[in-house]
Amino acid sequence: MNALQSKIIMKKALYPNDKNNTASLSFSEGNNLIRIDKIPAVLNADNYLSQILDLKKYSEVALLSLPLESGINRVIKRSIDLFLSIIFIVFILSWLTPVIGILIKLESPGPVFFLQKRNKKNGRIFTCIKFRSMIVNVEADIVQARENDYRITRIGKFLRKYYLDELPQFINVLLGDMSVIGPRPHMVSDNIKYGELIRDYSFRSNVNPGITGLAQISGYNGPVADIEKMRTRVKIDNFYIRHWSLKLDALILVRMMVKAIRALHV
Fold first, then answer.
1. 213-229 confidence digits (pLDDT tens)
2. Could you give the CA distance from residue 125 to residue 224 in angstroms, rounded to a whole number?
3. C-alpha–C-alpha distance, residues 168 and 177, integer Å
4. Mean pLDDT of the chain
5. Residue spans per domain, the chain
6. Lowest mean pLDDT: which of 14-18, 70-74, 121-125, 220-224?
7. Three-state DSSP class for 135?
8. Residue 107, C-beta contacts closer than 8 angstroms, at least 6 positions apart
9. In Å, how far from its chain's centre is CA 174?
10. Beta strand 62-63 pairing with 22-29
């Protein structure tokens, strides 16, 4: 093995329960996520990688298995997402949407919903649905909301304070574009920007984005202007992906509900 190949990091070489005794390769360059699935364990990993990669270009790759690559885990998580989204849409969003919609329309002209293109699993594009919290403006898709942003309406401030503007995303969950729990979806322009600045940023694309996530209950929610804070958020998101479990999802959901209830009493 040469010096360059010795830099290859084998984070988790094999699926312990895979009958085919195979592994999965995932690595990123800039804002591009590259995946190579089902590498037979009988092959020498270094020789196999040297045949499919230009090792002069990639100095580090990660060989790992992820909890949500398991078919059973994906079915369980998707079933919970469907159950929660249907319950929420039928019993809460059905009556809350007309109320919030009237308040939005009374304050400023424009649609009730704000539709924005964002990235989901594997970097694919989807339309993220939110209650509109700003006046209609041409910068909405390229400039994040800032503190004391003139674009945010009075009802918008209220919706953002109590996370109500995110509630229509349960429709995205029902459609399969999002999950209840997962890394928050960022604007496409931000994904391009941070993909070039933050190592392993695109690793977040291994799972569908969520309405809330581990980073949000850890205090990293809302717009981020500081690159170091974004790096920390990405590390938390990637930790979640590598260590997903039903227990972790339940913990995040309960913490988020407690956080929302506390906000109501502030």
1. 999 999 888 777 789 99
2. 22
3. 13
4. 81
5. 5-65, 70-264
6. 14-18
7. coil
8. 153, 154, 155
9. 16
10. antiparallel
